[in-house]
Amino acid sequence: MAYDPTRQQADAVDTAIESVSALSEDSRRRMFAFVRRAGHAVTRDEAAASVGISRKLAAFHLDKLVDVGLLRAYYATPAGIRKVGRRPKVYEPTDAQITVSIPDRRHELLADLLLDAVLTEGADESAAQAAVRTAGHRGRWMGEAAREETRPGRLGPERGLTVCERLLEQYGYEPVRETPTRLRLRNCPFHPLAAKAPDLVCGMNQAFLSGYLNGLQVSGVQAVLAPEPGECCVRLVPGDTDGDDRVARDR
Asked: Biggest alpha carbon distance in the chain?
């Protein structure tokens, strides 16, 4: 089955919503906090005592947290406890991180690009130039990876934008097809940071999307700056991308 980033993103959102929903119950949320702070695998008896409920009810809540991926469970004898017979079920936190943002934000991507820029900044470029360069390279790499994965063949403007929409949806851009060859992006994944440094962040955003178009080898489409209040500063519109492609190859 082909890799579907849109479906993967939707699944991740569903999982995050389920996790948040699971923590809406007070006793369950308090037990989850207790298990995270414990520093060792916790038994049902310990979890029940931490919130003052029965062992049976504690087991129900703990297993619900396992179901949504916030805890893992296994059978073990807790350290310092001598027990004859079947080992008790114990619980410990997973590495899962819950992030739910509506509309979607991608501050971790922006931070990662800026870190790469700091680590690779050349003597002949400014910090801002390094950031734009890094964003372009990352977008191009992602486009090349997507092309290798999907093998879409030749991509003209209309079909190219259809393929691009998958990434744009995955990263929270909320693309809207204004015409067969024009995409408007209703959400800025980097807001509100883009409002603090629009020249830098919007420049990185444009470079990232231009790089993706080049890596995916979409012809006849370009990413241009067209800021609108409350929307992404970039749009994908008809244009000749050959010049952009040469620039990206030369970098």
From this structure: 75
Q: How much is the pLDDT for 11?
A: 56
The tokens 């178009």 sit on which residue?
213
CB atoms closer than 10 angstroms to residue 65: 24
Query: What span, in angstroms and rounded, lies between the C-alpha atoms of 152 and 155?
Result: 7
CA distance 133 to 127: 10
- Which SS3 state, helix, strand or coil, does residue 123 take? coil
- Residue 185 β-bridge partners: 175
Say if residue 88 is preceded by a cis peptide, omega within 30 of 0.
Answer: no
Residue 87, SS3 per DSSP: coil
Per-residue pLDDT of 61-78, as tens digits, reads 999 999 888 899 999 876
83 near 30, Cβ under 8 Å?
A: no
pLDDT by residue (tens digit) across 78-113? Answer: 665 555 567 889 999 988 776 666 667 778 888 999
Q: Is the pTM of this model over 0.70?
A: no
DSSP for residue 92: E
Cβ-Cβ contacts under 8 Å for 126 (sequence gap 6 or more)? none
C-alpha to C-alpha distance for 25 and 2, rounded to whole angstroms: 38
What is the spatial distance between Cα 74 and Cα 93, in angstroms, rounded to a whole number? 12
* pLDDT score of 162: 93
Say how far apart CA 97 and CA 95 lie, in whole Å.
6
Rounded (5°) CA angle 18-24-30:
115
